[in-house]
Design brief:
The protein is α/β, with parallel strands linked by helices. The chain is built from eleven helices and 18 strands.
C-alpha cells in the first residue's frame, strides 16, 4: 500500500491522513467544499481522543482554543431560570470551536488536499481502485477511505442500494450573531417537546453561537437549499413563547455562517467492501446528541491506521480487525445518541 485516497477533510479524514503519512504512505484528500469550512458547532473530546491529539502532536495547540465554558442556564418558556447545568454536560474533557480544530489538523497534515472536487465513480479491481472525479483526471489508488459525513458519496458508490441512515426525529440550524444576551463563557438552554434553543458565547465576547433544534420526520432538509431550511426553522418556532425567539430568527437570516443538519445515525453490517472502507460519520454516525462524534472520528482514524500497519499490506485483515475493535465503542456511542434525543423531546 503506497497510494491512498481519503474523501472528506473535516476531522476523521485529516487525522487518518496524518497517521498514514507517518508510515510513508502517499495520501490524497479530496473535499467537495471550496475551502475549509468555517461553520459548525463547538466540538468536544473525551477520554482516549485526547491521547490521539497528543500523538498527532497538536493537543497543546488545540487547548489554546478551549471554550472554557462555565456552565449552562436552563430557562422556562417565559425566560425564568429553571436550573443550572455544569460545563461538563456539554463540553466533555475539552471543548473547542470546530473551525479551530480543523485548522489545527490541516496545518499538521503533510498530504495533498484537493478542495472543490468530489468522487463521481469507483471501480474496484483486485489490486487497485479506479476513481473518477468531478474535476480532476481519473486516477488509480491502492485503497479508498470515505470520511465524508452522514451523506457520504463514497458510501453511496461503494454500497449501492444500501440505505443506512436512521433519522432520529430532530434537525437544527446553527449560526453566530451578536452576543445580545451578554453571555460570558456560559450558555442558555430552553427545551420543550419537539423544540430546543441553545445559545452560548466563548472566546469572542461580542459573538454568540445559536442552535435552533426541532422535531422532523426525515433528513431531507439536509440536502435542501438554505431558503427551505430557514423556512422550516421559522415554521417550527413561529409560536415559540420566549420573547427573544423572533430576534434569534431574524439573526438567523442575517448570518453568514448558517449551518443546518439533522440528527441521524448510520448503521451498516460492514464498514468496508473490497479496497474501500468508511470511518467516522460516513460509516457509523452516532448523532451529534451523543457528544462523541469528534472523539469517535479521531479514535477511528488512529485505530484504522494501526490495523493497516499491523496487517502489513493485507487490507482485508486490517479492515476486519478495525471493525472488530471499534464496533462495541460505536454501538455504545449510538445508544447515548438515541437516549439524548429522547431526553430532549426529539
Amino acid at each position: 500500500m503506497t497510494d491512498v485516497l481519503i474523501s472528506g477533510a473535516s476531522v476523521a479524514g485529516p487525522a487518518l491522513a496524518w497517521f498514514l503519512r507517518r508510515e510513508g504512505i502517499r495520501v490524497t484528500v479530496v473535499e467537495r467544499a471550496p475551502e475549509l469550512r468555517d461553520s459548525g458547532y463547538a466540538v468536544d473530546f473525551r477520554g482516549a481522543a485526547l491521547d490521539v491529539l497528543a500523538e498527532i502532536g497538536i493537543l497543546d495547540e488545540v487547548r489554546t482554543h478551549e471554550t472554557r465554558m462555565r456552565g449552562t442556564t436552563v430557562l422556562a418558556p417565559d425566560g425564568s431560570v429553571v436550573a443550572e447545568l455544569p460545563a461538563a454536560t456539554f463540553a466533555g474533557d475539552l471543548e473547542v470551536p470546530k473551525r479551530a480544530l480543523t485548522g489545527v489538523l490541516h496545518r499538521a497534515v503533510d498530504a495533498d488536499v484537493v478542495f472543490d472536487d468530489t468522487i463521481t465513480a469507483l471501480e474496484q479491481h483486485d489490486d487497485r481502485v479506479t476513481v473518477s472525479f468531478e474535476r480532476a483526471p481519473t486516477r488509480d489508488f491502492d485503497l479508498v477511505f470515505g470520511a465524508d459525513g452522514v451523506h457520504s458519496v463514497v458510501r453511496r458508490l461503494a454500497f449501492p442500494g444500501v440505505a443506512p441512515i436512521e433519522h432520529l426525529g430532530m434537525s437544527g440550524a446553527g449560526f453566530t450573531t451578536g452576543n445580545v444576551f451578554g453571555l460570558d463563557h456560559r450558555g442558555l438552554l430552553q427545551t420543550a417537546p419537539g423544540r430546543a434553543i441553545y445559545a452560548f458565547a466563548a472566546g469572542d465576547p461580542d459573538r454568540m453561537t445559536v442552535s435552533l433544534s426541532f422535531a422532523t420526520t426525515s433528513s431531507e432538509l439536509d440536502r435542501a437549499g438554505r431558503a427551505a431550511q430557514e423556512a422550516a426553522v421559522r415554521a417550527a418556532f413561529a409560536d415559540h413563547p420566549w420573547p427573544e425567539t423572533p430576534g434569534l430568527l431574524a439573526a438567523m437570516t442575517e448570518a453568514s455562517d448558517f449551518y443546518f443538519a439533522s440528527t441521524c445515525q448510520v448503521h451498516l453490517d460492514s464498514w468496508s467492501t473490497g479496497r474501500v472502507a468508511l470511518l467516522g460519520d460516513a460509516g457509523y454516525c452516532a448523532a451529534p446528541t451523543s457528544g462523541m462524534g469528534t472523539s469517535q472520528a479521531l479514535i477511528a482514524a488512529s485505530t484504522l491506521a494501526r490495523c493497516l500497519t499491523e496487517a502489513a499490506g493485507d487490507h482485508r485483515a486490517a479492515f476486519e480487525r478495525y471493525e472488530k475493535e471499534l464496533r462495541p465503542y460505536v454501538t455504545e456511542n449510538q445508544r447515548i445518541g438515541r437516549e439524548a434525543v429522547a431526553a430532549f423531546g426529539g
